[in-house]
Specification:
CATH architecture: Up-down Bundle
Order of helices and strands: HEEHHHHHEH
Largest sheet: 3 strands, antiparallel
Mean pLDDT: 85
Number of strands: 3
Oligomer: single chain
CATH topology: Methane Monooxygenase Hydroxylase, Chain G, domain 1
CATH superfamily: Peptidase M41
Strand order of the largest sheet: 2-1-3
């Protein structure tokens, strides 16, 4: 009986080398696929973050443009700066008329709530406020509260000056006062929302420029605001 010859060293080496090369090739393909997958994931994450940033900037541009258009439409002083790139987000700054009548201050309420109204009408959703004392809702609530308690504009006890340190506690316990303050806010918001619908062309125009420039001030702002005024629709009342 003839014995089978075992493969020699060179044959074994070739066999091991072949398997090693094949294994290395498979590992290389697998590593390349893993790298491609990781690159695709990173790319998708980057695209998602960029999209979120653009969406946030669009929301801020609409919000601040509405504030500015409301102030122009209601003739509330002058605007000196509009930005969407401040650390706290965006804002509109300027001067207000010195004569504080109830009509003028109601206009301030409308302008303060116009940003939220524009988000609802144009963006389709409303972002949460910061919750700080300087946010739109806090500022509007404080003004409406003062109009009811210390400025003499309340329909109930207009001559009674009630300056309080803790506004939050009083609103929580005095439901009648809270209802009157809220009624001013609701009324102002209804007007702000209607104004946004009527002035959408002007808001869109300013919002697009804000998206591109991020901050407007000085001569550039003056030029842009003149163009915005040309797009504001005159509305009765």
């Amino acid at each position: 009986m003839k014995k089978r010859r075992k493969p020699g060293f060179s044959q074994q080496h070739r066999s091991q080398k072949t398997r090693a090369v094949e294994a290395a090739g498979d590992s290389g393909i697998s590593a390349e696929r893993d790298a491609d997958a990781a690159g695709s994931a990173d790319s998708l994450l980057g695209d998602a973050l960029l999209l979120r940033l653009l969406q946030l900037q669009f929301r801020m541009a609409v919000h601040e443009a509405a504030h500015a258009v409301a102030r122009l439409h209601l003739d509330l002083g002058t605007i000196v700066k509009v930005t969407i790139e401040a650390p706290e987000g965006g804002y509109v700054t300027g001067t207000m008329p010195e004569e504080q009548t109830e009509a003028m201050l109601t206009g301030v309420l409308i302008a303060a709530l116009a940003g939220r109204a524009a988000e609802e009408v144009i963006v389709g959703s409303v972002a949460a406020g910061s919750g700080s004392e300087s946010c739109d809702l806090a500022a509007a609530t404080a003004l409406a509260f003062d109009m009811e308690t210390v400025m003499g504009f309340s329909k109930k006890w207009p001559l009674l000056h009630r300056k309080v340190e803790d506004r939050t506690s009083l609103l929580a316990t005095d439901h009648d006062l809270a209802a009157r303050v809220n009624a001013r806010l609701e009324s102002a918001y209804a007007v702000a929302r209607k104004m946004v619908v009527n002035q959408k062309v002007a808001i869109d125009f300013l919002g697009e420029i804000l998206l591109a420039r991020k901050t407007l001030e000085g001569a550039e702002l003056d030029t842009v605001l003149q163009q915005v005024k040309q797009r504001i629709v005159a509305t009765p009342g």
